[in-house]
Amino acid sequence: MAMPLLRKPFRFKRQSRLHRMSRFEKAVVVLLVLFSAFMLLPLVYIFNHALKPYEELFIYPPTIWARSPSLQNFVELFNITSDSVIPVTRYIFNSLTVAVLSVITVTGVSALCAYPLSKHKFPGYKLVFATIMLTLLFAPETVTIPRYLVVSNLGIMNTYWGHILPMVAVPVGVFLMKQFIDQIPNELLESARLDGAREFTVFLRIVVPVILPAVATIGIISFQTAWGNVETSNLFMQDEQMKTFPFFISSLTSNMANNVARQGAAAAAALFMFIPNLIIFLVFQSKVIATMAHSGIK
Amino acid sequence: MGRIVLKHVEKRYGKDKQYAVKDFNLEIEDGEFLVMVGGSGCGKSTTLRMIAGLEDITSGELYIGDKLVNHLPPKDRDIAMVFQNYALYPNMNIYENIAFGLRLRKEPKHEIDLSVKSTSRTLEIEQFLDRKPRQLSGGQRQRVALGRAIVRKPSVFLMDEPLSNLDAKLRVQMRTEIIRLHKQLGVTTVYVTHDQVEAMTMGNRIVVMKDGVIQQVDSPRLIYSNPRNMFVASFIGTPPINFIDGKVVETDGGKLQLQTQRSYLAIPDAHAELLRKHGKVNRRVVLGIRCEYAHAEPEMADRHPRSQMTGTLKVAELMGADMYLYVDIGADTPFVVRTTSGFDCREDEKITVTLDMSKALYFDKDTTASLMYE
Fold this sequence. Notes:
The complex is a heterodimer of chains A (298) and B (374).
Chain A: H1 3-7, H2 13-20, H3 23-51, H4 54-57, H5 72-80, H6 88-119, H7 125-134, H8 144-154, H9 160-168, H10 171-182, H11 186-194, H12 199-210, H13 212-227, H14 231-236, H15 245-254, H16 263-295
Chain B: E1 4-13, E2 18-28, E3 33-37, H1 44-52, E4 59-64, E5 67-68, E6 79-82, H2 94-104, H3 109-122, H4 138-150, E7 156-160, H5 168-185, E8 188-193, H6 196-202, E9 205-210, E10 213-218, H7 220-225, H8 230-235, E11 242-250, E12 256-259, E13 264-266, H9 269-277, E14 284-289, E15 294-295, H10 300-303, E16 308-318, E17 322-328, E18 335-340, E19 350-355, E20 361-364
Parallel strand pairs in B: 3-8, 3-9, 6-7, 7-8
Antiparallel strand pairs in B: 1-2, 1-4, 4-5, 9-10, 11-12, 11-14, 12-13, 14-20, 15-19, 16-17, 16-19, 17-18
Helix pairs in contact in B: 2-3, 2-4
GO cellular component, one term (chain B): ATP-binding cassette (ABC) transporter complex, substrate-binding subunit-containing
Domain ABC transporter (chain B): 4-236
Protein name (chain B): Sugar ABC transporter ATP-binding protein
């Protein structure tokens, strides 16, 4: 009985999957591969740009690939500030501190806000949730002045709080977490309460682990926002020591617009800005994709 | 002490204060296995959740042991609960699931380990301890949920339809398992189900509920043989009890008969006395008779004279050893007769049904209350 099976020609799994596709599907696959290659272009460009020596940066027509890659731009980036009071590492340290702290506070605050909204249904919870959603409607520019007044009156100008506090309220985060917590069966929480857990233990030991994909997503979003944020440095930090790395980069390029000098350093800095985002996304991408599939949010 | 006392316990919901549970009075003895049964929305789960402390009590008093626990949080009531959907913590492995309650109580590590191991041995889930709940089948998950309840050695177990999510075969198996556990541990257990077979087989006593009101509290045997009202009679037993409308009339000889649409059924003296006491002579009553006391075999006619009805056989349902005959006797619902599978009959043919009138029950037509109680 096993003989007919043996006669079947051997094929690789992938190859056989390709064989099963119709001509239209194959065309779609080819098209999608081309598109994704096209989407990759900026990334390739950033990488190569940072590695191009001066003479290549201004070549016309511009090239994608660096012909003779060198690390000269990075050396320049770290040398620029060698004669100034504040070294570039200070900006990087500020940025990392702000990014890490805001990831922790944003995810923490969003989850702590979403949990009672979803599971405790206190009087007026609908109004609270609607208000939070309403804030999505405001463009960031419209709240700049009130935000400045709040930060200034709190007296947290030129502190890390000034960087973090304006970033903490993330309505999308609350919304996403609430959607996830809604799906947790009440019995799970009740059973933990019967086991003797206090409310905070239920939250920390049961709710948070179950909604980890949402936590990861919010973590990435808040990291990217905080890492690329120039606004707080611009508005609330008069002290140069407290400004962040993206601000430093923008000063590199914008203060010297149309200037040939330091373009190499700017290219290196752009790569520097981009790499943490890439790493974080690659590490957490599976969770993020699970979240997108789960909640229909992009 | 696992004694539970409910005194005038009530639960009302919403703006219009509708009753979910109304004037619930019950004493559950230490070590008893009490089953609460009823249709969906009858308040049985709400009552259980009030005992657990997951639901507020609108009015009344609830005692566990000798302590008034109305305002005690769930964790201080010394109870454990098993849910229909198991409610295992998906992020923890089985060991941690079982140990969670003990860890929160800050018990020493080696004692936790000992308890978890011995509990998992009792429930035969030792080999799964390092797995996650999603890697287990429904039956295994339910065992873990039981383990999580047992390991804390509470004075009361509460079970909310724990077997509803299992397939029929597994349900029977777990049923005996739970009975065995109860015998072994002797812990007071309150078990909620909508399945009357579970209720009959598991409970020391059964509470039948409807619309938030207790209909009857009794042993399974009494609930089946002497229900308090028509709801209890029809809810317990498969196929459901047969009801026949009729008028109690007196014959010339001073005997009582039930005059139904098609025939006269002789009422035995013992029942006649009760009916006279209730003043039901020349009144309409409802006769209830279970299918095993109705016979289709012709030889039964001699044994129970003057208690025959004729009808048309509509459907014959073969159940293996038994066969259920659905007979049209001119009422709205068919009359069900249980017979042996060898019984020879054809559908749409006339059939004579003999009733064992000594086993009949009588109900008040207006109040639906049983007339079998004095």
